[in-house]
Design a protein that fits this description.
- Helix 2 packs across helix 9 and helix 2 packs antiparallel against helix 10.
- The protein contains 10 helices and 9 strands.
- Helix content is about 40%, strand content about 25%.
- It is an alpha/beta fold.
- The strands form 3 sheets. Strands 3, 4, 7, 8 and 9 form a 5-stranded antiparallel sheet that branches. A two-stranded parallel sheet has the order 1-2. The chain has a two-stranded parallel ribbon with strand order 5-6.
Length: about 270
Amino acid sequence: MMRLRSWLLGSLAVVLLAATQPQAAPRLKITLSNQEWPPYMGKELPYDGILSRLVKEAFARANVDVAFRYYPNNRTLQSARNGTVDGSFGWAPTSERKQDLLFTQPVLHARMVFFQRRNANFPWNDLSNLRHARVGVTVGNFYSDEFNQQVKAGHLIPDMAPDDVTNLRKLLAGRIDLFPIDMEVGQYLIARNFQPRLAQQLEPQNKSFWVAPLHVVIWRKHRQGPELVERFNRGLKALQDSGEFDRIVAETRAASLAYHKPIKTQ
């Protein structure tokens, strides 16, 4: 009888202990829109690029599996805003975007600079100093509140193109004077889309006009939207605290830079 009582008490203790332990969150599966923005994002890049890998790894640490669906640049964000996919990533917040999207903590920051033709002279201390400069912009991209204010004031003349490489070609041809883009992305695209004799004709300015935060965004009407944001933020912090974040960035950057695709003839 004593043995039976001991066994029952022991079993009850195990049940009570299990009941008080935090339960692991159920595993979720989501689809995020992606685009070509090497070396941060790209279908043919190792791990789909630096930012893509970080997003997947952070979500994985919070029990979320991520699949990518690739779109042209000007449709990538819209697919998240209308709920075609669960969300997207690599976007800076704006009041307009916040109407349709929930934003996580930033994953990385883009150093936005102006590229120009070599030896061109477009000095500035304030963006208003670039009065009447023809500036290439990519449809769907946001270049800071200050940039938009200068456009509205007529100090900057925007010239639209569907993608970044087209803008770089326009810059090379003299159809625009400046093109704003992340320093690393601009250098990567030039090196892999132009022959060396043409690539050397383009250069970035030395100073940045904006350091842009790159967030994951989730469709605001998603029934698990706030939970996905919370899970991602938790997974991102775990990734950063473990030291794995910096290792992944360095490893994926090296793999992306070593990736070679034939340069298109210009």
